[in-house]
Design a protein that fits this description.
Domain Amine oxidase: 11-75, 92-182, 243-413
CATH class of the largest domain: Alpha Beta
GO molecular function: oxidoreductase activity
Strand order of the largest sheet: 1-19-22-21-20-10
Helix content: 25-40%
Shape: globular
Strand content: 15-25%
Protein name: Amine oxidase domain-containing protein
Largest sheet: 6 strands, mixed
Number of strands: 22
CATH topology of the largest domain: FAD/NAD(P)-binding domain
InterPro entries: Amino_oxidase, FAD/NAD-bd_sf, Flavin_monoamine_oxidase
Organism: Actinoplanes cyaneus
Bound molecules: flavin-adenine dinucleotide
Number of domains: 3
Structural class: alpha/beta
Length: 416
Amino acid sequence: MSIKVTLLGSAVSHWGEDPWARGSWSLIGRHGSPQDRIALGMPVHDRLRIAGEATHPTRAGMTHGAFEQGRAAAAWAIERGHTEIVVVGAGMAGLGAARLLDDHWLEVEIWEARDRIGGRTAGVEVAGGAFDLGANWLQQYDENVLARLAERFGLRTVVTDFTDPMVLTGERFPGGIEDDVRKRLAAAAPDASIADVLDDWLREPAPWSAAEIHRFVDAEIVMDTGAPLSWLSARHGFEPGVGEGDRWIAGGYRLLTEHLAKGLRIRLDRRVDRILVADDGILVIKDDPVLGESSKRADAVIVTAPVPVLAAGAIAFDPPLPEPHRAALSRLGAGRVEKVVLRFAERFWPEHGYYRVHGPADTCISEWLDATAADGTPTLVGLFAGDWLDTLWTGTDEQIAARATEIFRNAVPAPR
Ligand SMILES: Cc1cc2nc3c(=O)[nH]c(=O)nc-3n(C[C@H](O)[C@H](O)[C@H](O)COP(=O)(O)OP(=O)(O)OC[C@H]3O[C@@H](n4cnc5c(N)ncnc54)[C@H](O)[C@@H]3O)c2cc1C
């Protein structure tokens, strides 16, 4: 008997095409190392600093890492004696920076390209509930500064056990394989990619089978990065973070960002095109062919635009960024993980919390959060990476949501 489902509403992300993200989170390419993250975050002379998740040496790709880096950049500006600061970007790093500067009674203005705050935390309303199309979890919960804020604001959080997903199709990979993978990646040559290590290993995969190794790599590395394995650094491309006490926020990240933004001066729809440094200050400029240029002078600027946005030259720096910063940008990058939120009239899947679906092709992988606990309406949040994105993320959002629903429905065991 096939399962009947009634979709009440859906939402679909497009991080890969988003001009202000150009991908999901930062990653280290085969010629890079965590040193590139540190180099990118070093002050540029006395007036400019790049912050954002990509500059955190150990908590990159996560909201609390971004927030910490924003605050570190703000502390630098305060220490340098700057009193008027522009922050570029109203994501977690920008909000963290501006909050601290504002708490010190300094003049701070955020210029944000989008018409909303939050950056890669992106709240969305679906069928009367609030969910996330960007960041979902507070990772590394016990040591997460944003988790402490969520507690202070009285937000409800729900635990996800990433170490024990229900595998709906395909087989689980064996428990001990992760240690072996990590050991092999750590022992790789400095410029080796993850694909290089796999090619070698698969010639003699024992004690595992080739299929088991592939299953681990697809489920953990492809899903955690969304990047080609031939580009990712073997030593540094598979960074930790997931599976360390993660909890999602019922009602979404928006509840945090709205608190953080309270009272701040935020100019939305203010894309920064150019940043000019002079002896007596720094100018941020938006060029507009119709309205002309708008600009603001400041003592210092903190830039939180994502790595691929900076690497694409979306902001022109005059003088250009120093060589170590440009080299770091060329060695870092971002992958693509997309999400879909699906709300149903009835639950048609077994209760567990987190699910993994392999197939139909080996490299097609999706993971699913049961977000019903948000408000009681049966809700799934699907995460897609790898080869799925080529076939699934085409057509309208409704078509994508319908296809995603089919993938999950087909994976759920039929009722007897
Ligand atoms: C699908 C997905 C799932 C994720 N899941 C998690 C998770 O579960 N847990 C977790 O911790 N992290 C997760 N992340 C990562 C997390 O969202 C990011 O690491 C974090 O939000 C980055 O914050 P940021 O401030 O560094 O950058 P952003 O949030 O990208 O903020 C930068 C801001 O700068 C703006 N901007 C860019 N260019 C310009 C310009 N020229 N002028 C003005 N403004 C500009 C952008 O619009 C943006 O608002 C996820 C990300 C994605 C995409």
